[in-house]
Design goal:
The chain is an alpha/beta fold and 350 residues long. Helix content is 44%, strand content 13%. Strands 1-2-3-5-6-7-8-10 form an eight-stranded parallel beta barrel, surrounded by eight helices. Helix 3 runs parallel beside helix 5, helix 7 runs parallel beside helix 8 and helix 10 crosses helix 11. The longest helix is centred in the first third of the chain and has 18 residues. It starts with 8 loop residues before the first strand and ends in an 8-residue tail after the last helix. The mean pLDDT is 91. This is Luciferase family oxidoreductase group 1. InterPro entries: Bact_Lucif_Oxidored (IPR050766), CmoO-like (IPR019949), Luciferase-like_dom (IPR011251), Luciferase-like_sf (IPR036661). To bacterial alkanal monooxygenase alpha and beta chains.
Length: 350
């Protein structure tokens, strides 16, 4: 397949915790993955924020990013994302201003609206229910931008944010992105003139609508003259389709737990996943995984790259971010290396 629109490739990681692993093991695996992405020529490496989830070790993006930036050489590091309702705006701005001061030109601040946690955990993080609603989110984004020295014309920050700055003497600022899986976030990112990353890997079925909503809502800003859209996809590659499907089993068990309200434990092995999936009603399981595949692209590297290229063509994305759930980090590293080796060399260069 001829690649019509080569775009930069990036990585999103949640620091998945597998059965028998500690959080330290999972974070060490994320570090190894970031180094592999750096060596393979990926543009960005983002880490997520989730709380009270036994399968996820990435709870504090700012802390983890400081470690990853010191452990890599040139790749941009960022949050995918910081869940803004969980934190005071000044805390977020100061953390990422400090990261930018330590690693200038390498830091992204991806901001999300969902809490990434259950309501009780979200309230404990914020210490109050105030600021947890969607209505507060646009104003809080504007305040973070103002605290980082990025005022938007016609968008006044709060009086407090207008009088403060996140760092005493800033020489550069992190690149701010809005993240989302809804039309709300797409339209807000467009109206603010910010780059937007759509969580296509959530498999909501609204990717094309969100891309269109973002572009229709876009207004030029001091940040961007034109829209900049990134889409994410869950990807796992292996030497054969059968092996890829087998290795993707743990992600399907996780998807089943998330969508059916079952307790979400650590990532199970492919062997245990196969046994659990084989015990399901085959007709019901086929219908469920057709709608919620777990891993969207699980195949050989050549076919995976063709599918990713088709996703770029459908969405008109300016960047592509890949993520994946697997039992071991070797599978995730192999996926990154094999995809990068087949992506256009003028975009990804090891």
């Amino acid at each position: 397949m001829t690649r019509r629109n080569p775009v930069p490739l990036s990585v999103l990681d949640t620091s998945p915790v597998a059965v028998g692993q500690t959080s330290g093991d999972a974070l060490a695996a994320t570090t190894a993955l970031a180094r592999a992405a750096d060596a393979a020529g990926y543009a960005r490496f983002w880490v997520a924020e989730h709380h009270a989830m036994p399968a996820v070790a990435s709870t504090s993006p700012g802390v983890l990013l400081a470690h990853l930036a010191a452990s890599t050489d040139r790749i941009r590091l960022g949050s995918g994302g910081v869940m803004l309702p969980n934190h005071p705006t000044l805390v977020v701005a100061e953390q990422f201003a400090m990261l930018e001061a330590l690693h200038p030109g390498r830091i992204d601040l991806g901001i999300g609206r969902a809490p990434g946690a259950d309501p009780m955990t979200a309230a404990a993080l914020r210490r109050t229910v105030e600021g947890l609603g969607a209505d507060d989110f646009p104003a809080e984004v504007i305040d973070v931008l103002a605290l980082l020295g990025q005022d938007l014309p016609g968008r006044a920050p709060s009086l407090r944010a207008s009088r403060l700055s996140a760092t005493p003497v800033a020489t550069s600022s992190p690149q701010v992105w809005l993240l989302g899986s809804s039309l709300f976030s797409a339209e807000l990112a467009g109206s603010l003139g910010l780059p937007f990353s759509y969580a296509h890997h959530f498999n909501t079925g609204h990717t094309l609508q969100a891309a269109d909503a973002y572009r229709r809502a876009f207004r030029p800003s001091p940040v961007l003259d034109e829209p900049r859209l990134m889409v994410s996809a869950s990807v796992l590659v292996a030497d054969s389709d059968d092996e890829a499907q087998y290795l993707a089993g743990p992600s399907r068990v996780m998807a089943l737990s998330l969508r059916t309200g079952r307790p979400l434990g650590p990532i199970v092995s492919p062997e245990d996943a196969a046994r659990e999936l084989d015990a399901l009603d085959p007709v019901a399981a086929a219908d469920f995984f057709a709608r919620v595949p777990g891993t969207q692209v699980a195949t050989t590297a050549d076919r995976a790259v063709d599918e990713l290229d088709a996703l770029v063509a459908r969405t008109g994305a300016d960047e592509l971010m890949i993520t994946g759930t697997a039992f071991d980090v070797a599978t995730r590293v192999h996926t990154l290396e094999q995809v990068a080796a087949r992506w256009p060399s003028d975009v990804v260069a090891a």
